[in-house]
Design goal:
Rossmann fold, binds thiamine diphosphate, 598 residues, five-stranded parallel sheet, 20 helices, 4 domains, 22 strands, alpha/beta, single chain, seven-stranded mixed sheet
């Protein structure tokens, strides 16, 4: 049967057919749809885990219990899960364990760009990379087999284009019927990594890689395609597809096993061709591996090391390097009218807007340019989520954003460094549970004189409304036990805990002012539903044209429902959340905004 599947859909179906029993993930683009697709399947356990470290630990436990397990995450998620990733490489498993890392070259929706192929080599974990959805589907079966045969976790590395592009997949398999029965075999020398047990496991790891080196030599998905022998191209992942498109007649070596690489196969290929080049996205990972073998390959001298590749970028690089003739100039028709540039922005009715507006007023004192802080201004350390869009004008209310959970630690650090300004940390509810909790414990333990604002919209909005422990909704969208954030915060030892309505500007302002005046850590939970997730919407607002003086204060909240017509504010009723939000009415000095029909 043939289906049109994205790489992520194909990985999910491939894992299901391969008999995965436990699947875990923390959402993150471009990986999220893997677990979302597995959640539809019957007979398997799926969970949105608290974070990627927990996701891998749960999958690792399941694999210790003898069943096939999968943990998927975005590239930076593997940084969070790095500790168990290295640990499970040391202990090995019993049931197959597959870790999927979806990298995001070009940072379409990430805080950083990194090439996670290095993780495989670093942790001594075998890695395979599909070049399309068919291979993504087929590989899942291989990955679990390799994992079990070699007693090792296996890394499947994907990238945005592999994960999100749809290609035709021959879905040839059905779910395995002969699943292993879950059982744990006691074996402290394998599972209890005290130094005396961990040292012998290091030998096991090295022996495993030697065995894998010879295994990958005959792995059927690595493929040598001999064309014109003048140019031989080594490639993997989506870059292989681009290379095939650009170099029509060259010879190719497609590598699916990219750690370890099949050394003899690569050497044979290099002998078949006059010149070897490597076409790969991000780092010169394969190129360096070829150099180590003494093969004088090139690639990164004409293919960028930064950002996502396209066939056009590969082609331009090849032309510059003299590998392809320059194209004859063709007359291109004039471009169609360009769309106006538009920043990403918070939605109409977003509960984050009010808090960020107050932060702007109170902490930045409307200072507009970067530079040293004035007396009385407050530093706002931020985290990652929809609320990070508050960095853009007109809100411009944030000072930092590094990695998930960092806002609280950064705030403590700034305060302990002794800067003369107060510090506020801002993070979302999903981010708080992911990795904010430990920072807050640090603030309690070490008497951090900071205020933490948890923007609780009851969901993981940025990645598409996944549940998290605070929401009481499971990955299968059934009811789960909800962790109450205010109780959790109190339980951690915070004495000054406040819950405010995220749409009540006065309450947010007075609570924040009070918190900034008190000693020790304080927490404000600013609560309001995400409008894209909320069940009911409000009655829209309008601007009374004769009352509007054109002062533009309402534009300062950056609501996409508000625009100008003849220098006066107007509200688009089809977008406005009105009574469910009401922030524009609260900021209007003329009281010119009210519910339609009133
Ligand atoms: C380590 C890591 N994992 C996952 C992500 C993807 N991601 C970015 S923000 C975010 C959570 C957003 O949820 P929340 O904190 O509740 O804020 P909201 O978007 O709902 O405002 C996630 C999962 C990431 N950037 N880094």
């Amino acid at each position: 049967m043939k289906e049109l599947l994205s790489g992520n859909e194909a990985m999910a179906l491939g894992a299901y057919h391969a008999g995965v029993v436990v699947a875990t993930a923390y959402p993150g683009t471009p990986s999220t749809e893997i677990l979302e697709n597995l959640a539809h399947q019957d007979g398997i356990y799926v969970e949105w885990s608290t974070n990627e470290k927990v996701a891998l630990e749960v999958a690792m436990g399941a694999a210790y219990g003898g069943v096939r397990a999968l943990a998927s995450m975005k590239h930076v998620g593997l940084n969070v899960a790095a500790d168990p990733f290295f640990a499970v490489s040391t202990t090995g498993i019993i049931g197959g364990l597959v870790v999927i890392s979806c990298d995001d070259p070009g940072e379409h929706s990430s805080q950083g760009e990194q090439d996670n192929r290095h993780f495989a080599k670093f942790a001594k974990v075998p890695m395979l990379e599909p070049t399309d959805s068919q291979e993504a589907y087929d590989l899942m079966d291989w990955l679990f087999k390799i994992s079990e045969e070699f007693d090792t976790p296996v890394l499947l590395r994907s990238t945005t284009r592999i994960s999100h592009c749809k290609t035709v997949v021959d879905v040839g398999r059905e779910r395995k019927a002969d699943l292993k029965q879950p059982a744990f075999t006691r074996s402290p020398s394998k599972y209890v990594m005290v130094p005396s047990n961990a040292r012998p496991r290091r030998n096991v790891m090295e022996e495993r890689i030697i065995k894998l080196r010879s295994y990958v030599e005959s792995f059927p998905m690595n493929e040598m395609v001999l064309g014109d022998r003048k140019l031989g191209i080594v490639s993997s992942g989506v870059a292989y597809q681009y290379a095939r498109e650009v170099f029509k007649n060259a010879s190719f070596l497609k590598l699916v096993t990219t750690y370890p690489i099949p050394v003899s196969l690569v050497q044979r290929f290099a002998k078949e061709v006059e010149r070897v080049i490597v076409v790969e996205e991000l780092d010169p990972y394969l190129e360096d591996a070829l150099h180590e073998l003494g093969i004088p390959a090139t690639g990164k001298d004409f293919i960028p090391i930064i950002g996502e590749l396209t066939p056009e970028i590969v082609e331009q690089g090849a032309i510059k390097a003299g590998l392809l003739p320059a194209p004859k100039p063709v007359h291109k028709p004039a471009m169609a009218a360009q769309l106006p540039a538009r920043r990403p922005q918070l939605c109409a009715g977003c509960p984050h807007v009010g808090t960020e507006y107050v932060l702007r007023q109170l902490c930045f004192q409307n200072a507009s340019s970067p530079g040293p802080l004035k007396k009385g201004e407050v530093v706002v350390t931020s985290d990652i989520g929809c609320y990070t869009l508050g960095v853009y004008p007109p809100l411009s209310a944030l000072d930092t954003c590094a990695c998930m959970g960092a806002s609280i630690g950064q705030a403590i650090g700034l305060q302990k460094a002794g800067i003369p300004n107060k510090v506020v940390a801002v993070l979302g509810d999903s981010t708080f549970v992911h990795s904010g909790i430990t920072g807050l414990v640090d603030a309690v333990y070490n008497q951090g004189n900071i205020t933490v604002i948890i923007l609780d919209n009851g969901t993981t909005a940025m990645t598409g409304h996944q549940g998290h422990p605070g929401t009481g909704i499971s990955a299968k969208r059934t009811k789960a036990t909800a962790v109450k954030l205010e109780k959790l915060v109190e339980g951690l030892g915070v004495k000054n805990v406040n819950v405010v309505n995220a749409f009540d500007l006065k309450a947010i302002e007075s609570t924040l002012k009070r918190c900034l005046e008190t000693e020790g850590p304080s927490v404000i939970i600013s609560r309001g539903p995400c409008p894209l997730n909320a069940k009911s919407t409000g009655k829209p607002f309008k601007v009374e044209a004769d009352q509007c003086t054109g002062c533009y204060t309402c534009l300062d909240i950056g609501c996409p429902a508000i625009s100008l017509s003849d220098d006066r504010a107007v509200i688009d009723a089809s977008v406005c959340l009105g009574t469910a939000c009401g922030i524009c009415a609260q900021v209007c000095p003329q009281e010119a905004i009210s519910e339609i029909g009133k």
